[in-house]
Amino acid sequence: MATRSDPSARSAAVGRAWAVLGVLLGALLAFALYAPARWMASGLASWSDGHLQLVNARGTIWNGTAGVVFSSGAGGAESISLPGTLAWTLRPRWDGVAAALQIPCCAPQPLQFRARPRPSGLQLSWEDGRSRWPAALLSGFGAPWNTLKPEGVLDLSMQGFAMQFDGPQLRLAGRATLDATDISSSLSTLKPMGSYRITIEGGPSPTLLLTTREGSLQLNGSGRWNGHALRFDGEASAAPGREDALSNLLNIIGRREGARSIITLG
Fold it and tell me: Membrane spanning segments where (predicted)?
């Protein structure tokens, strides 16, 4: 003969289940809110193959500080550290995450972007802004920069600039302009060699344009991004009277054709 279960026992069991669920949700929330900043540092180093590193990371993934090092790779011999520290703030939103990066050495105002997950990847939309970086940090990215060892100033401005990662493919939108001023290299005694501008225009078929603003080393060229790689064709030459001072550099950065050096990438 079947027996009826005790209502009070059922109520106690349900109460215990809700208590366990509450503990699990609380632990999950605490885990998400207080995940240490060093986890972000580890993930960023892995994603960038060691080229971008956060050192002495403190705080959480949502609010933290760290030093920034550009390296030629995991265990790379060439590493460049930015002066001061980076402070970041991440805020979850219904469609992703809003981020603010405070980099006193290089940006007068916080650099802000929004990260939005997409079915096949991730979209990063940057707020319009300007920043200034030492050209020496490029040496931390390995060849050919660690051979050229550039010096000078890099001024970056962005207007409606967005990057969308669709699996292995990268799509670009908006515009980014990089003004490289008073650039010099360890391969030439001529200091500075010149000032240059690189303009990236996003869209269905993003383009890159390199022009010389002024200087003894003349650089010009254009390229096109196909979603996976950059195809660039350009040339370098020396201003009249500067051929001897720039001859060694011209031999290295491209294929010599008389007084010109032909530069081809991709």
Answer: 17-35
